[in-house]
Input
Amino acid sequence: MSKAITDTGTGTKAGGFSGIDYLKITVFGFALSALWGSLHSIILPVRILDFVAESQKNAYLGLLTFAGLIVAMIWQPIAGRLSDRSGYSWGRRRPYVLIGTILALLFIPGIGLAGNYIVIFVIYCLLQASGNTAQSGYQGFIPDLVPEGKMGLASGVKVLLEIGGGIALLGLIGPFMDRYFAGKEGSWLWLNLEGGSWLWLSLGLLAIILLGAMIATVLTVKEPPGTGAPKLSLPSLLYTTFKIDVKAHRNFVWFLVSRLFIVMALAPLQTFMLYFLQDVAGVPNPAEVTANLLIVVGITMLAVIYPAGRLSDRVGRKPIGVFAGLLGALGILLLYFFRDSYGSIMCAGVLLGVCTGAFFSTNWALATDLVVKGEEARYLGLTNLATAGGAALARLIGPMIDFFNARSPGLGYDVMLLACFVYFLVGSGMLLKIKLR
Output
């Protein structure tokens, strides 16, 4: 059993916390990021082209992911609230990881089975609900189990694993989905695959990683038993889940606003980059190049996450977060002015990788600093109002991209980049409003 945990049933932290403990409580994030990163950046953009006209692809992709992320934004805090109040003998968090993952594994094949836009729309929303059930439990591990003074390091490890998961399969899934879209036959390892099989191979790899991470988490993380709490009626549950005393927790509100804008700046780049490279840069294999760009971003993020987390424990979270936001704005400028150069696009990816890694490593540590004790999963679930909410709002730019592109080729992507630039500046400024002791 981890030395950091006592079986008092109180959820309090005691003793030391070893290196392997950091991995135990964060490995599930690796699998979640592999799932969402591959779906949002490659699989769904390619799959949508099976159902909608080329001129409407940004709008339909944006609306699909907007709806799913609204589900995530609403459901994750509710699941977090239920987790906080759970009384299971084997912990408050792991039951939600288990149940959510099992449901997600049932819905993942639906992405491949869907025969029209409506079906994939419904399946994606159900997948978001199940995935966020699991995530609500997983997010409670750090505030529950990590000793004070090591939150920054634990948050850095968490983001490190999440970024690793986000890029781990892109080098495979990018080429796989290019072959799927082109309907090509080919071989991989000892497999001889037809066109449609590349999609199933991609989805199967994601499902295997999610299942493995869930099993590792459920078996290795040790929690004290949940204490339980009186059951709430549905109106009371909803009210107590989303209620925030703005006056008492003003800093948490500023944190949410800042995170909202930074996520709004990053989400369009992930969602519409494949179409940007196809329509503006004119690359013949956009899924593979998108994967290469995201791998560059991910590797850069990996390089800065750990030192950023450690540094934030010493100099504070705000200075690093502000610097990261400004660096992201610089990356957008590079992407805007030098979009025709493959090398410049990859350099912009490096800047955006440093921005993303530094911001989210320190930002999650800032969240754990600001959460209310005893309601950690609820408040960390409320961060999803900013995370999923920002990502959802960012997707609404999809119809705008198609609207402006119809008037002048590429103009819609200029509007997207301008919006991202402004979002980075506003998000950085909002961090300055937070006052910490």
Q: What stands out?
A: DSSP finds 16 helices and two strands in the chain.
